[in-house]
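haha ok so turns out i had the wrong file open the whole time. this is the CORRECT one, sorry everyone. sequence first:
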Amino acid sequence: MRRLPLPGTPRDLAEQAATTVGLLPRPGGVMALPPLPEEDHFCESCALRYGDLTPSAALGLIRSHPGRYRRRLQHLPIDVLRRRPASGVWSALEYACHVRDVYDVYDTRVRRTLTEHEPTLDPMRNDERAEQGAYNQQPLAAVLLDLERNADRFAALTSEISEPQWSRTAVRLPGERRTVRWMVRQAAHEGLHHLHDIGVGANDKAVLFDVDGVLVDSYPAYRRIWSRWADHRNLDPDLVWSHTHGRRPVDTIQAVAPHLDAAAEYSLIREFMANEGDGFPVYPDAAAVLRLLQNRRWGVVTSGRTPTVLQRLRAGGLPDPPVLVDSSQVRRGKPDPEGYLRAAQLLGVPASGCLVIEDAPAGVQAARTAGMTVVAVRTTHLDDELAGAHHRVDTLSDTVPLITGWLEGHTREPGNRTTR
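then structure:
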């Protein structure tokens, strides 16, 4: 029986054997089960760390996979679908069959773990299953339909898991215990990883982030700063605050106090900002999201200044953006599209190839005017204020399936979508 490994580094292959193969040879011809990935597994190939994958993000990935596999495979000629790219590596059709079966098997595993005390799990034995099920001869339409049904059923089960149930465990080998949380993460990872195996991805796609309210939790500090400045100038703090989101400080000053010297007032605001010290933490899920973009095109478009932005990102352990467009590099700030268009130009991608993560109406408008697809996170504004975004989600973690889907080549869908 042939081993069908995941492409990648030797470390990848050693750690992830259980996701792709059913058995490993031992001396004397006895077959042994490979180890399962650990609870905190990190995949070097797709940069997914299990510890960073929240239940809602895993659920989003699971729900997205049927559509992604359909878009990727449905137009391929049958000979391409069945072609194995190298000896011992599965074809695209075989990977689709495997993911279909993963969601069926993990649905059963999770249900057993929720209702039994540490049940013993039967191994999938992937090679045997592929051979006995004639994976490479199955009709694609039926495979995709079953994949959709299995993923929907597993997603429905996942959405009903309560907080105490996530920690329930099952065993496969003696001492090899895994939680329900791990099972859901593992199933979501299988679907994502094998999309990479069949060759998804496009060179003309990029992801752009706003900073404040998206990567950095600056809302409380900025509220204090602008309220202090408003009181200092005898202005209405609420009125001032309503003009700040997504805009350059000088644009806010000119809008609420045109009689004042904007440059001088900005210097005063920067003094207030310096007094906030480390009051600008990065969001806890920012590192995990940016880790998915290793070797991908991404950047930030901010109304702040580069030294300040880099200082806050670095303080939170985030990488320097490959492209950073700040307020000094544009003549007009958000809601004007200039900043986003400049970032796309610097990344060498068309505006239509950019997915933007925003939190403020001005930023959403800027990205939409630039012709980009926009995901709004509800960190600073409500749904009705973010109606211009194509998608609206609660947290940065919830953007994971949208980001991975975008980079894997699925096209923009019309209308607005919301996720809770």
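The radius of gyration is 24 Å.
again sry for the mixup
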